Amino acid sequence: MKSVDANAINHVSDTARYVALLRAQESDRPDALFRDPWARRLAGYPAEAMVQKFSSPRFDSRIMAVRTKILDDLVLSLVRENKLDTVLNLGSGLDTRVFRLELPSSLRWVEADLPRMIAYKRDLLKGETPPCEWETKAVDLSESQARKDFFKEIQIKSQRTLVITEGLLMYLTDIQVQQLADDLLHTPSVQFWLTDLLTPQQLRWVKKRMGDFAKTNVHFAPPEGPEYFRHLGWKPLAFRSFADEARRLHRESNWYRYGRLFSPLLPKWWEGERQNGIALLGRLHPGTL
Which secondary-structure segment (H or E) carries 202? Predict the structure, then answer.
């Protein structure tokens, strides 16, 4: 039997702990892009060992800080400017935005993830009070019928919904992403969709660094970027490149810095790096299915 390394990533829940610890590390900085007082508690001790094991924890920390900040800002602006009544966070992991952000009390924030992740998170956050209504749902989003039933439940109480799939799509196959996109399209209240996207070259890098777990579980990295979703009924409305935003937010790694400096010599490679980021999608035909 193959042994399991307790300090490595062996399950998607391990990645949630790892991401939480990276948020904690950003929060410790005097110039932090955000503050997450719950992150270290949620990460737990195993995440510390994971960070030490990986070859580029500083790079991961900077990119995670940038990803978190981009999504924080987009969520707040979308909620405020579009009169959204529901935020649906799919594959929510150990995210704490519902506690960290200044959200309107009228907002309904719903998180969905695997049963053990939801139970773990609710237990560690017992006694904490978010500024808005907070609901959690234990559901395997890879199961088609369970996902459809869940979206029907969401629709009953929602008029204008934002969906977040931070760190989720990479674990799905093309077919599963297409099915998810179709299910969201047939949930009338869903108006906007925020997601991070890998490029094929980033996918190869992730598989190399994360080993057997990634080789088996990480799949989705569309060469077309956000345009991939257009034929599925979702129009790209905005895109924030991690490389560009890292420079703007003073979190540029040496990898991105050297890439930018040498971009005239490697334009295709650098443009590929700049396609790794956050996409905002909207219905291609608003108000219709």
Answer: helix 200-210
In the three-class reduction of DSSP (H, G, I as helix; E, B as strand; rest coil), residue 287 is classed as: coil
pLDDT, tens digit, 9 for 90 and up, residues 187-214: 999 999 999 999 988 888 887 776 677 7
Phi, psi of 218 (to 5 degrees): -100, 125
Percent of the chain with pLDDT over 70: 88
In DSSP notation, 88-150 reads: EEET-TT--HHHHS---TT-EEEEEE-HHHHHHHHHHTTT---SSEEEEEE--TTSHHHHHHH
Q: What kind and span of H or E run contains 195? A: strand 190-197
> Angle 200-210/267-274 helices, nearest 10 degrees?
80
Q: Mean of the per-residue pLDDT values for the chain? A: 89
42: enclosing H helix or E strand = helix 39-53
Q: Which residues of 240-266 are buried (b: 16+ CB within 10 A; e: fewer)?
A: bbbbbbbbebebbbebbeebbeebeee
CA distance 84 to 104: 10
pLDDT one-digit tens code per residue, 42-94:
998 665 666 666 546 566 889 999 999 999 999 999 999 999 999 999 999 99
Cβ 151 vs Cβ 187: under 8 Å: yes
Q: What is the rounded distance in angstroms from the CA atom of residue 179 to the CA atom of residue 132?
A: 30
Three-state SS for 31?
coil
At residue 45, the 3 state secondary structure works out as: helix
Q: With H, G, I as helix, E, B as strand and everything else as coil, classify residue 17.
A: helix
Domain topology for 56-283? Rossmann fold (3.40.50)
